[in-house]
Amino acid sequence: MRESNEAARKTVARAAAVTAPTDRGPASAWTSDPGPLRCPGCHGALRRTDAGFACDAGGCGARLAVRDGVLAVRDVMTGDNRIAADFYNSKLWPRLRVWDSLFWLVNGGQRRARQVALRHLPKGGGIRLLDVAIGDGVYTSWLPGDWSVVGVDISIAQLLACQRRNADRALRLVLGEAEDLPFRDRTFDAVLSNGGFNHFNDPEAALREMVRVARPGAPIVVADERPDFLDIGHRAGVPALDRWIASRLMSMGDDFADVIERHRSLDIAAIGRRVLKDCRYEVVWRGLGYLMVGAAP
């Protein structure tokens, strides 16, 4: 039975109370310096407060809380982002890990498979990287230690797991949506989205935001499963079968299975060509995924 949105949030709150990091380590990443942040409302400058950050521009009055080392730009997501957040914050996500592990296994192991995307990031030191949909940060420790990594995700449970997995890195983690990034223009040396792009509320709007916050010429790297990777039923003329596989067999639940179905006709390559400079699109992971690489104009 699916958990209600409220039940899922209570589950995450209890987990956070038990496992939340102290002020040492990753929680110290959000210091008095707002770094690349801007006010998500008026786009003005932010200042540090005891609870997080505040905007004093023109009566804006926006307040952003830092809780358990995570900057909360948006506590409750919207549309399909909310459905995805509820899934990743619930008990359904651990059940999917079996299939997730199998996916990486048939593609040579997770480290080898994810290099399909990671190898397109810059090779130098001191890189400022934005990771959109950072999830639990499984590959973050593979990045050079002198890189400054900012991660955005819709799931507080995933962000807390990312902290625990990368306790030796001062990550700046943000709870928010890809379609409305709280960062200044032309800030990052590279932008990565390694999973999740298909299920954003508006993938094209999210990609345009990635471009906005990247410096001109910076690489934008996006990788994910093909939107229609579950197509056995559609090819057999029984499309309901694919929804059943996602919802029941793979334990994604009805709501998230509906998101997958709504987004299965996305033309990722066309989105990339409209937004990115020198966009290249290729099918990867034994035909189950795609890689899209381009540059910020």
UniProtKB/TrEMBL annotation:
The keyword Protease does not apply. InterPro entries: Methyltransf_11, SAM-dependent_MTases_sf. GO terms for biological process: methylation. Residues 130-221 form the Methyltransferase type domain. Keywords: Methyltransferase, Transferase, Ubiquinone. GO terms for molecular function: S-adenosylmethionine-dependent methyltransferase activity. PANTHER family: 2-METHOXY-6-POLYPRENYL-1,4-BENZOQUINOL METHYLASE, MITOCHONDRIAL, METHYLTRANSFERASE. This is Ubiquinone/menaquinone biosynthesis C-methylase UbiE. It comes from Roseiarcus fermentans.
